[in-house]
Design goal:
This protein is mainly α and 651 residues long. Helix content is 56%, strand content 3%. The protein is globular, with a radius of gyration of 26 Å.
Length: 651
Amino acid sequence: MFSSDFMNFETQKTTRLYPERASAGVDQKIENLEKIESGELPKIELSKKEIAELLDFENELGGNFETIYKLVSVSHTFYPEYFLSDAGRKDFFATTGIELDGETIQAVTASILKNRQAIRQLIDEKTVSSKEVAELFGRSINFSDNNFFLRLSRQKAVDGSLRINPETPLPERATILLTPDISLKKISQLRIFKHFLKEKLASLGSPATPSSGLNEGLREILTLYKKRVNEMIANQVFFGIAAKNTADILGDETISKEESALAHPAKKHPDDIQLFYGLSDPEKTLARFDKFIYGASQEYNASGDREQISKEIEGYADQIEKLYLENALSTNENIQKKGLDPKKILDAKMSVEQYLPWVEELLENCKEKSVYPSLEYDPSRENPAPDGKWQVVTGPEFKTNNIDQKRKVYELGHTENKKRTVESVISVMLGHEIAHIFQKINREALPLTLFNRINSDRRGIYAEGGAMHMQDIISTEAFGTRSIPIPHYVRAMVCRLRGGDYLDCVSAFYDSAYKILKAQLDAGIITDKNFQKKVDLRLKTAIGSVKRLFNSATGFSGQSGILTRSDATAYLEQLLLMDKLKAIGKEKYAYLGINLETITSLAKLGFLDAAKIKTPSRYALKIWDKIKDGYKLQISENSPADELDKNPELS
């Protein structure tokens, strides 16, 4: 059995309402893991028969959970101002064949929501594809963002600084829920499944009470599932809020029974299940769920609630911003020390067609490339190619670069603005993203269905830790310059926690980015022309990124000081984690993409062999060696700023 120190640690962990943030208590988590590996803390004693019984139980549990996991509800956020324009109305009719009513934001929103069932029917009958509907509402986002950018860009000073008028009209948005039946089914089944897990855990007795190895193993498995179920329940609350907003706009008498069940969870579900709690205050509810998923600080705010982000993270953002600035000011010099031309390295001009063969070559080298041609890829499929290997796909339908771990597809964005610098291709496309593929490979090697068929809980921070670590290694080795997380979004998050509204948070994000660009301009690293392009690009990024801090259920005017999503701190928290892991030579664990508490559980069960964790291939450096002669430095009479004048994306 376990030592008293370990039991005390376990008991303390279970008394917290919210888990700690991933970056909190890292030293203690690593220490417990090391003690298990060294034998100071014994693993759970299981016979071969008990291991087989435990795995059979988990496989059955995972199969039931996977059925729920695969239920996918469909909703779209849209910006009604687009559909007030002639172009937007024509677009809506051309896509759906439906004429919109209304001459105000409120009226056109109601008109779109009234047609939600008609749009669902069009999709079900394949008169219009779900992709076409998604793209229609996506165009409304672009329209609104462009309008808001023009509104704010007029408020920039000559030097590029921005002081936003607090009276600036805010964007308005709404959500259309197309599949309330699936949403209701998923949250209902999740609640039933969670109830089963709680009853099963209760039947095993108290964690502090000594029991058989099999019972200890069952408790670990059930706890892992309970955490993952809690995360999924938290993500479903959005659909309850969407249904409630639809009811508020159109009236209860107009909504379906499924929407009513989602919108009014206080009225017990037919199965006597409480679906959601606290929809009357959606921001506070979403913030609570955010803390269940991503954890909370050990610090308390004035209201007596745990803070979502600790002062440690805010202070760490100061360090990263300093490091980021130092790196930005020395990038050209560091590249030149490698005998390379900064202009050639950082000038964004490489198309998908140029680097796609390199991605395939890397996968081939890792023995992970599918023998099935990418042209045979069917985007409607749910699973990987028949051989279980990876395919690389591209085309106009792929707007962004994405690793689809479920289907094992590496999607390469095909739009014109997705041309990449060679630095980005080598360090990100062949370093960062390949690390995510290896994380999938390592999870598949684990004997539990929860990891090899269903993604694990709270994995973002740990997944990014490994991916950013590999990106930094490749970038430093190939180009002499580091890849460092951008701190701007964390600045906006802190502003939000202090009661800032959308305009305040956009300003905080932009000011952080502006500080870096102004320093580059003053140092002569970029020209004034390039500086102006860059500040516009950063303003556009701020407008889009900061939206995530404001749930679509509550709009952009809220000054609650509450975060409905705090996951973006992953890019800072992962540095804290990686620093600790590297210090003790344990960075391999970051290539599982799961958190340290979960890794500890797997180690206790004897299901994790650190020696078998595969580290990402550095084959990107071999590809770079084959092409780098074309990027060597040549003597130029131009200044560094002139050489980089065509690169508006350089940070």
